[in-house]
Amino acid sequence: IITKKGKILDGLFSVNQINMGNQNCWLTVMTDVTELVKLNNEQKKLLIKAERSSKAKSMFVANMSHEIRTPLNAILGYAQIMERKCETCPHTDQGLTSIIKSGEHLLELINNILETIKSDVSEIKINYTAFDIIKMIQE
Questions:
Q1: pLDDT digits over 2-44, tens only?
Q2: How far apart are CA 103 and CA 109, in angstroms?
């Protein structure tokens, strides 16, 4: 509906037939739902924005999971290989042990952070499995 002043209103109409004396008449009532429609449209926009935000968060967690863990696992794997091959070198052995302990601590910290973020993101599932890095490299 457009008012005399040119304002557009959203309306909800109800039409009923009534009998007045010997005449059938129509009773029409309009309820102004303009604000309700605006609120509904705003709610839809916010829902779309929230869905986009959730999708961006999911992509971030998936990317970070791969981009951080992969190089860290490579560092740990090669440090473990070097540690096994350099058992007779006391100076390098101590350094490699330090690299491995620090790397494992960092990996655990990253896993905890990503798990906390992931708890809000239902689409992503991370599976942890133990594996032999030397066997994997040899294959």
A1: 889 999 999 999 999 998 888 999 999 999 999 989 988 998 8
A2: 10
Report, in angstroms and rounded to the nearest whole number, the Rg of the chain calculated over CA atoms: 33
Q: pLDDT digits over 62-72, tens only?
A: 787 778 888 88
Any domain includes 15:
no
Residues 6 or more apart whose CB falls under 8 angstroms from that of 70 comprise none
Domain that holds residue 121: 54-138
CATH number for position 110: 1.10.287
DSSP helix/strand/coil, 87: coil
Q: How many domains does the chain have?
A: 1
Q: Please choose, from the candidates 130, 113, 108, the residue with its C-alpha nearest in 3D space to the C-alpha of residue 61.
A: 113
